[in-house]
Design goal:
about 15% strand
Length: about 240
């Protein structure tokens, strides 16, 4: 634990107690990530693990930072803080109560080389969900990062994925599978008021906007589409 050798007297608890708290945070992060299919974990959840028995002001930050080190050194994971992306329409609206800072949250990101992760860590039983996520994010990416819900479902219907299908042989409830991508912060929903009423849009969220993810999407799309002879365009309006 990189910071464990620093001054423990500021917390008035033993090294053993701090190590126990760090281990508890590490276990919680790994278990919650697996249990919730990689959905972000709120910082407040980790803080509560520490403060349920201790009241020292700076202890949660110390323990979380130490847990980050342990997850990296022992398990090969980065505990990455999400920089929450705001819907594009929110940037055009007047400041309101929605301008209050979003709660911090974290995700686990493997630090292993892709080929090592694929061979030893990746769960083949969830490969279909990875493929589903790639298709959805690619469609939204090709639409310019934002697409009306109606148009997205039209594209999915061409692939045999219907909004009202709750018993798909591979994906089960299609609408819930799409909602999971929102919960995982690959997508975000944005309701926009227009002259013809409200329109729901799906927009790329912070995990899909992450530079390595975007580059991977572009690489795969270039392999699938002959960009020299075909112009790929997804109707975003």
């Amino acid at each position: 634990m990189a910071d464990a050798g620093e001054d423990f007297s500021q917390f008035d608890i033993s090294k053993e107690e701090i190590e126990k708290l760090v281990a508890e945070v590490v276990r919680y992060v790994i278990f919650k990530t697996h249990q919730n299919s990689g959905c972000p974990i709120k910082r407040e959840e980790l803080v509560q693990l520490v403060t349920k028995n201790y009241s020292q002001r700076n202890l949660p930050a110390f323990v979380i930072n130490a847990a980050k080190d342990k997850l990296s050194c022992v398990f090969g994971y980065e505990l990455r803080e999400l920089q929450r992306a705001r819907p594009s329409s929110a940037n055009l609206s007047r400041p309101s109560q929605n301008s209050v800072a979003d709660p911090k949250s974290y995700i686990l990101v493997s630090q292993l080389p892709p080929e090592v992760y694929k061979r030893y860590v990746e769960d083949v039983n969830t490969a279909h969900l990875t493929g589903f996520r790639f298709v959805i994010v690619s469609i939204v990416h090709l639409a310019g990062g934002k697409i009306p819900e109606e148009n997205l479902w039209r594209h999915l219907k061409r692939m045999g994925l219907c909004e009202n299908d709750v018993n798909h042989p591979v994906f089960g409830n299609i609408k819930q599978a799409l909602e999971t991508l929102v919960q995982q912060r690959y997508l975000q929903k944005d309701k926009v008021n227009g002259p013809e009423g409200n329109t729901m849009f799906y927009e790329l969220a912070e995990r899909a906007l992450d530079a390595p993810v975007r580059e991977k999407i572009k690489e795969h799309i270039s392999q699938i589409v002959n960009v020299d002879n075909n112009v790929v365009h997804v109707d975003a309006h």
